[in-house]
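User: Sequence in, structure out. Go.
Assistant: Echoing your sequence, followed by the structure tokens.
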Amino acid sequence: MVKGHLGIVGAIVVLILTGGGYAFVASDSSKKADSAAKKRVASSFHAVRSVTELDAQAVKAHAQRYALRTSSVFTQLGIYRRGVGVEFTRSAASLGEEWTPDFMAVLDRKNIVVWSSLNSTVTKKNTPTDYVTNRRVRDVYVDKVKLGKAPVAFGTLKLKEVLTTPLHTVAVPLLGAKNRVLMVVVLAWKGKSNKAELKAKALAFQRIVNVVVVVRDLKRVYAGIDALLGSRFPRELKNKYGITGAFVGLLDKRGVLMRRSDGRTNSLFVGEQLAEKSQALYEARAQKYATTQIWPKEKILEQTSKTSKGTSGRPRPEMLRVGFGPVLDERTQLQGVLVVAWPIDVHASHLKLDDITGGKVALLSHGELSSTNMKRLKASVLAGVKQTNLGPHQWVKPTISTVSVEGQTFLAAAARLPRGGQGDTSIFVVLASVDQEKEAFGYAKVMVLVMGVIMALLFLVVGWMVRRYFILSLDELEKGVANIVAGNMEYTFGVPSRETEGLAYSLNVLMAQLLGRPEPGEEEEEENEGTGGPRILFSLGAMPDRAYNPGDSQLIPRMDEDRPTYFTRIFNEYLRAMQDLGEETTGMEIAAFQRKLDVNERMICARLKCSEVRFSVVPGDEEVVLQPYPIA
């Protein structure tokens, strides 16, 4: 029968509903996870965009600020070079008008031209007279003099871009104490090629020139530049702004690198044109305002063995944010350019891209992975991420793509790093894991399963209890009714359970009254009486819907009597009530009366879950009624 397996049926229904609920929650959580990942990508995209834009603005601001503080350096250099020019002009004049050099230059020990002068008669049109100042001289013959291997050395000055014809040159050292070579002077005369004459004039120039004027003031100027570039500016960037590994360099007005902050590689690129094709540097020099660009690290910094490596084992192409600040004099004429650069890195302390995004970030340069906070990420995976064209509006909705990294699904958005310059391919990519977002909704799916299983178990337990204590008992009573219907009038209902004890007794009483046979308990009474004395008959009063508490105002029977006293009193009241009705009471015994009350008491206690029942005799016109009072 289905009614006997309602618990199982309920459990099956609950499990079916649980499966449907799980499928719904799984589908809903998948949509929510995808939506959450998109929101994370969008927020991270704009965060990285804003931070890198601020970084670009910051490098411009620092470049411009430091350029203003560096203008005094060029003032000192101008004073020094004018002094050297006066000294060299005086020394050259002492050689005679015929031997006035067409080219004069003084080189430091790193072969950098400290001061130079070209005669316009040997140069092309519009060539500055100090064209070679700050450039490196790489001719080998100069090293012979610098190292003290020869008193003079001969060479050729070509400079095809400015000279109309190559010049024969002679180099002589400027000597200090103990004949230590302090600097090298290079001289050239147009149309002069006789080495004996050139040597004689060069040595004469060497004896005439005042070495102190040339050397002493230059050291003071260089010390001032090194103090700014080598310590003050980098220390300020680190202490105030958290920028580490910063590079500071000083260019002359032609873009030649004069000095740089990192002393370990102080000679690297010094005396050479720095990024001749840089559009940002060109604009800073031509338009006289601060600009910025993104450069690969090796453009101005030496690669080291500590450079981070990618999964292929090759060094990653590290990127630098570079700012150019034009150095102007009081007439707003360009004197030089101050260069500030620092690494663009996901883990850089001043960027804090790890903290602000809450997602994954990758920086790429020329299609290769530069920096990322995501393990086992390859640049090839990001090749399919479509870049967002930001245009003039920064808060444009990013284009989101789907990528797979080692079996996990990620949403990604990419765009060029701001102010990277023309043709720059440096981009940033932000990623958010869809699978990781799903984990946040996994709790709901687990709770659906757990609650479903608990409810199914609850249905099974409750169904078993209902079947065990009610349905099976009712089935027994139903079988008894079927026996009686089938003609078995002698059938007596048993007691299948305590819960149905009262119902079984009532059915037995009903059958006894219908068939005129002794009621339950009276058979034993008649057997004990032997002769069949008067039967103990009474009716039960209306059954209350609850048990009374001791002291309740509705509780009429006395509660101060023990049970023997109570049964004696109630039996006597019953006899008087029967006698008033004219009934025969001779032979009635209290034991039979008590047994009958006990049967009714058990039935009522089973029904109302009370501890005992006290009865009160209510005389009637036709019968005696015993009103039950169940007591909790």
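User: And one key feature?
Assistant: The radius of gyration is 55 Å.
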